Every structure is written in C-alpha cells, then in structure tokens.
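Q: A reviewer asked whether we had any structural model of the full assembly, not just the individual parts. We don't, so I'm hoping you can provide one. Inputs are below.
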Amino acid sequence: MKLGVVQSKPRKGDIPSNMAALGEVFAQLAAEETPYEMIVLPEAALTGYFLEGAVYELAFEREKLAREIARLWRSQSGAERGPVDIVLGFFENAEGTYYNAAMYLSVERAAERIAHVHRKLFLPTYGVFDEERFLSRGRRLEVFETRFGRAALLICEDAWHAIVPTLAAVKGARLLIVPSASPGRGLGGDGELLSVSRWRDVLRSYAIEHGVFVIYAGLAGFEGGKGMTGSSMVIDPHGAILAAAPALGACLIRAHIDLSEIELARAELPLLGDLDAVLPDLLADPDLFSQAGARAGAALPSVER
Amino acid sequence: MSAGHVPAAPRLLPVIDATAPSEPSLEIDCALAAQWLEAFLRDELVERRGIHEAVIGLSGGVDSAVTAFLCARALGADHVHALRLPYHTSSADSLADAQVVIDALGCRSRTIEISAAVDGYLQFEPEAGARRRGNIMARTRMIVLFDQSAKLDALPVGTGNKTERLMGYFTWHADDSPPVNPLGDLFKTQVWALARYLGVPRAIVDKAPSADLEANQTDEGDLGITYLKADRILALMLLGYSEAQIAARGLDPEDIRLVRQRVASTHWKRHLPTTAMLSNTAINDFYLRPVDY
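A: Here is a predicted structure for the entire assembly that you could use as a starting point for your response.
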C-alpha cells in the first residue's frame, strides 16, 4: 500500500487558504507516477488546533466536508487513476453538538463514502488544554473495514491511554491511524523535545505489543506561542520506524507498506493472541470497576444519622 | 565444628543506592531551544503577521542580548533594530555592553535618549522616589519601542524571562508589553546557558544582572536571592512541591518563603486588567477567541 502522511501547517481559522494549500498538496500527490492509496492528515488539519470559542464558527458538517475533500482530490490531474482513502482530523458540528473528530473517507471516481468518523474520546482539559470546555466527548471506539483490512482512528490523547490501542487491536484493527496536534514541551531531552520522545515511545510500544502498523500524522506550526510538534511517523508491526518527519514545518511522508508484515510480526511475538485469551478474565474482575469507582469518590462511606 | 574453622561470612549482594529526592533539571538542550525559538519568531513575525523587522530595546543585559541574537538568526541581522534607550543616570557600562552586542551581530541600531521625555513629566513630580522613577523610565522605553516599530514596520520583541515574570520583577505594561516574547518560558539560568550557546559576548553573560534604574542596582540585590536558588525553588514550586519538599532538597526555608511570597503577590502582573463581568458575552470570560485567530 502506498501511503502519504501530510504534516500540514494550517493558518489559524483560515479555511479557504488551508483548503487551497491542501489542493496544492493533493496536486503534488496526484502527480506521482505510482498512485497513492491512502493519505493521512493531522488533527484539526484545516483550522489549527487551539480554537477556543471559534470552534463554533469553524466546525464542519461531516457530509459537506467529505464532498469538498473528494471534489478537491478529484480536481487534481492524475487523481482519476484509482481510488484513494483520505483520513483527516476536523472539528465536527453535529446539529449543534461539537466534536473533535477524524474521518476515514474513500474517494472513487464518481462517488465518495465515509467509512468511519471517530469522535475523540479523551478530551485533554488540563494545563494548556481546554477541549472539554468547548467540545463533547466521543463515546465509542469502533474498528471499521477498509480495503487494507480493519483500522481504528485514535485522535491524539486517545493514543496516550494504552487501553485504547489495546482494545482497538483486540477488536481486530491492523492499522492504528493517529491524527494528532501536540504542543511541544520539555527542553531536557537529547536533541528533541521530551513530548516528541514520549510520543514515539508510546506509539512504538503499541506497534510491537499488538503487531499493528501505526500511522501518526502531526500538525505543525506555532499557535499563539505553542509550537505543534509535527514529528509524523510510520511504524511497522515490528516497531521499526519506517519514516519520521521533523518537528518543525510542513512536509510529506511517502511510505510503501507491506501489510503482510502484520502476520509475520504476530507470528514472531504472539502477544495479541495471548491477550485475546486472557483479557475477558481480566475485564470480568469485579474489583476493576469498583476500584475505579472508589477513586472517583463513588464509594464514600455512608454517614450514620 | 573442628578447631580453627572460620565460619564463612554471609554473602552480601552489592547495593545500588537511588538518589533521592530527585529534582527537575534546569539544564536545557540549547541547540534545540535556539532552533525552536528561531522558528517561533519566524512564524509569529513573518508568516502570521507578514512583518520582517524586529525592534528590541537593548539594555546591555543578557536577556535583550539573547533576544537580539535569536531575532538575528530568525530574520537576519539586517532586520533587527536594536535601540539603546539611556536615561542620564544609566550606567555607561550598560550603553557600552549594548554596543558590544550590536557590533557582534552587525544589526541596525539607534540610540535615543529618554531623559528629556522622562524629566518632562518628572518636573511636575520632583518628589518621586526611585521606584516611581524606574517605572516611568520603563514605560517611556515602551512608548519609544512601540513608536519605532510603527515607523519601521516592525514588531517589538519582548525580553522578559520566566524568573522575573514569576517574581513580578518588571514594570507592568512596560517590559511585558511587546506582543511576542521568545524568553518568557525560560528561567534566568537557562537564558544564561542559551546566551553562552549563542555566542553572546562573555562580558554580558558574566556580569551581575541589573535593571539599571538606579545607581549600583543589581537584580539579585533587589530580589534578596540569587537567580540559581530562585530558579531551583521556582522550578519545584511550579510543579506543586510543598515548602517542606523543596527544603528537603537542600534549599533554605527563608529563601523558599521569599520566592513563594513574591509569586503569590504578583499574579495580577501576569494578567490583563480585571474587567467587571456583566453579561454572558464578557470578553475573555465567555467570548473566547485565540490570539492568532
């Protein structure tokens, strides 16, 4: 499978100019001799990430956005040679409820189909982050069919909770696609920001543990002093980093992925099969949710009257 | 047991002691910091605002020197306008050190005396003490910086570091007023490290920092603590460590209280003015739009 990961650097809130820039990227991609089969863009790719209340002005209706993206792709010379799947992070307006979402869109010559829209489960609302002030949480993690096998979309913090990629893999995902927008921090690292190292560490660990491809598309550019760390990457099911983009600036990753590597990696390290067998027992543990409830204050001692 | 048998000593495993308690490092990767801040300045000035020129008030101190070096990397020295803005009581060394930076960078420069402007007002307030006079100088420099930026199609670039911002050691709506600031999230000791990396002349990095608003003034004298100690305390305090936990790392409880008190009494200086909220569309309370929108 020929994959393109677009590390974009949008202008804040300027959708027409960001669409025009995406058109130029599509033109570059469509012009290549071997057609791309999948193109992955970051979280908030057409608006920038930190929108605060402007999200209500900038959120998209999913069907309308799908039509626009498909039209933009088809308008490029060379795009007519075959179908392409496009993954894109966007803010969704669902009849007045707003989500941080990502869409998996299959574009063919005459029609396009939204294979899946994932709504971000974990909305970071601490420190520099304020998502839940403006957005609603997604409630489901779905694994969906693509022509390359089953896939799951995880948006940014979704992928920082090991349980999410784990559940996606158990549900059959062979591709974990992670559109992200990560404001960089931590100068104590060795040649790169600590937040970038952390991303690579967690993503590699999922690829190795579950034998999946991990495709990470990071937003780039500064937003009000906060530098988004790009660092897009493609990791194979052995944990090898096939391509890694720098933190700064827009760029394109081109990767040729051999999906049969998944079977080879799982044969070598059959952890996912082991997990399949044991996970039901682990999840059936009655202490699991009562402990979580106690931490949340649900099991406070009753007061005698 | 036969005579002369010596019982074998029990075999002990080698012990590896953990260092405790740990402390966040103030060390930074200077090459990475420089690259990041250079990109920040280019994005903020050129890409977002379409401005190619920076105006910097060059005091002769390390903060403005580092800022000028970073701007020169981001925009080219030819696009950096260093302004020396002395008052008649300013130290001659400050003026000379600022010139050293200008010469080292080969940037554009101008010296504008602020004495007449400051004294023009102070003639009506002859009893004003050192603090008021210092604030008037700082605010006059701010006026010049913004006016020169309008004249030169440039953006004023701020020089305040994290330590002085946290300690409230600056004049509100003066030193903190430029619309972009590359150093505001670096402690003073980190600015020193970055200065050495960038090749800021040693005399500027090594001298005692001073606001130079009064004769023989030094920052550390004003603050009552060295920057090294203040930065260690601040770094821990910002992560939520208690006074006892900070003291357990060998820092003086008196110093910790001093730093805590300075931070606690200056939160207002790190905010915009307080506006009375009267509606559910109050700006920055309900009506929230990002600065780069």
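A: Points you may want to mention in the reply: Chain A has nine helices and 14 strands. The mean pLDDT of chain A is 95.
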